[in-house]
Amino acid sequence: MDRAKDGFVTDRSASATVRALLALFALVLLAFAPARAQTTHIAPRLVAESVVPSPGGATTIALAMTPEKSWHGYWSNGGDAGFGMQVEWNAPPGVTVGAFRYPVPEALTLFGLMNHVYEHPYALLADVRVDKSAAPGTDLTLTGIANWLACTDKICVPEKAVISVAMKAGDGAIAADAQRQFDAWRARLPQPLDRAGAWERRGAMVRFAVPLPEGTTLDVPHLFLETQGVIDYPAPQSFSRNGDWIVVEARAKGDAAGPIQGLLKLSDGRGLSVHFEPEAVPLAGEPIAAASRSIDMALFWTALGGAIIGGLILNLMPCVFPILSLKALSLARSGGAAREAKIEALAYTAGAVVTALLLGAALLALRAAGEQVGWAFQLQHPVSVFLLMLLAIAITLNLAGVYELPSFGAGQRLASQNGAAGGFWTGALAAFVATPCSGPLLGAALGATLVLPAWAALPIFGGLGLGLALPFLAVGFIPSLRSRLPKPGPWMATFRKWMALPMGLTALGLYWLLRQQTTPAMHGWMDVGILVIILAVMIRAWRRGEFARKTALIPYVALFYLLGTNAVDQFAKPGRVAAAENHSTFSPAALAEARKTGKPVFVYFTADWCLSCKANEAGAINREAVQGAFDKAGVVTLVGDWTNGDPAITRALAEHGRNSVPLYLWYAPGKAEPEILPQILTPGLLTDRAGR
Description:
The chain is an alpha+beta fold. The protein folds into four domains: 40-189, Sandwich (Immunoglobulin-like), CATH 2.60.40.1250; 192-287, Immunoglobulin-like (Sandwich); 297-518, no CATH class; 582-690, 3-Layer(aba) Sandwich (Glutaredoxin), CATH 3.40.30. 42% of the residues lie in helices and 20% in strands. Strands 11, 12, 13, 14, 15, 16, 17, 18 and 19 form a nine-stranded mixed sheet that branches. Strand 12 and strand 13 form a beta hairpin. Helix 6 runs antiparallel to helix 12 (500-517). The radius of gyration is 31 Å and the shape is globular. The termini are far apart. 36% of the residues are buried.
């Protein structure tokens, strides 16, 4: 037994010696590698988020690394036989470069050695600070010599390249493309854990405790340690949960002491940066199943129930009122007949659920790709709003009787099929337009999708569509409710034309939103497009003899005049979108400055397409009594406008468990965390906060 044990120790020592020699050999090759530019298997590119950083401020640089197929680079601690990026900077006077921040790596085991690697394109981020003494226009070009190790499963090659990015002192402006790219890179960085973990050595094992609340999804977790000489990397790691602690146990290697820095990989490539202090670690708890599909079922069912109830309540929110006309028309058309009502109700439900699922899937896919987006992202893009506006105009004209659409018209032939089509597309339109406004319970339910895996998050989006469709579904399947509907008759023609009014207001609202999102030149072209539609309607009306009375021409002539003159005015304006006033615009820096004043801070996140947001602003925030109370208390108000999307606002929403607006935060003086106010505000609620 002793000889076997000695043999085992000898084998492990030999393996450690081989690994050390491999790393030493790579470093020797690197030392003698030529400093000139050369062909590399991992292409480096140094870019700056702002090429005009402001004096006294900072910007972020990224060293983007693109490996060739089958090649990989390394994390800061490369593992058994690798090493991270090393850069010898040549920075101009007054420029300071911080340490690189690495994205979450993967564990790769080859020939019994574990390496911490990136097999796909990745980027290392670092902060660059500029001294306030730098004069505007000063050349701040940053250069350096970068050294790294590139490997396949068979060979390793030390590589070197000169990297450079041109910068000059300026106003700190960031181009939109650069902002999106850097937000995508930041999304792949581990998030710092707000509490320290604990670690201890117990015999041949090292034990770690990570403070992580129950409900956090772990998908094949792995603990990477930046500090070397602590664990045997290829050895299995066991994970268990003891209350709000994740306990990790691994085989010890080395004699490290003191604090340790690590990274806990979670699900979907996310990770947490953890600082471990040498303290007692709780006992191991319930083992975390190797099956990575386990989630907190209580969180899932609570979120699903909240989404269904929130979708039901959404039927009463202002953003759904225009769609109620289409619901009412569909109900009236069914005439109380059981078969038609059930078909229409099921089709409506299918349309609402499918649309909510598609929007949720698109949201999750964009977030997985690194985009900083949230719920209602479809209304943050002018093209989407433009198409929706055209659809609203088409439905308005159809309801007004200008032309017939089979899916919305009487549909004498194949009545049931037409009824199903009409119900489906009405439900789809309701979900597409209504869901951007977040009502009670809905914000928290959708916020849960940020921490659940995709397969568990999708049913929550589907639950939202189901809740939205529940009233229509109930009428279709409960005879007592159907019996209360008015019988079909001549009144339907008049009712249908009246229903064109709310749809027309919806089209007008989308037109206004599109004007907020686009430049004056685009406003002019929109007016021209609407003029063409009006002209087509006039020609059709003339052919049908509707202009027998000259007074019938008055509305068309008035619209022509107003839109025509407005189009000319818009084409004459400068081609830019008006900006919001900077003094009240939300940003993390503005929030930090406001809190330094010691005054109460009220932050609200809104969007022009969110009707519940606008209702709160008109009915509570902008009331004279509320503003007077705010002025008296010295309240600092910051507004986060999410109309066109803003990654900083998306991150702020996510930090508070939301991915939709509205969100209202109240920062009381002396308190670290804000109070999240209800999504339906009252003047008394705000004046009460200001008077405390």
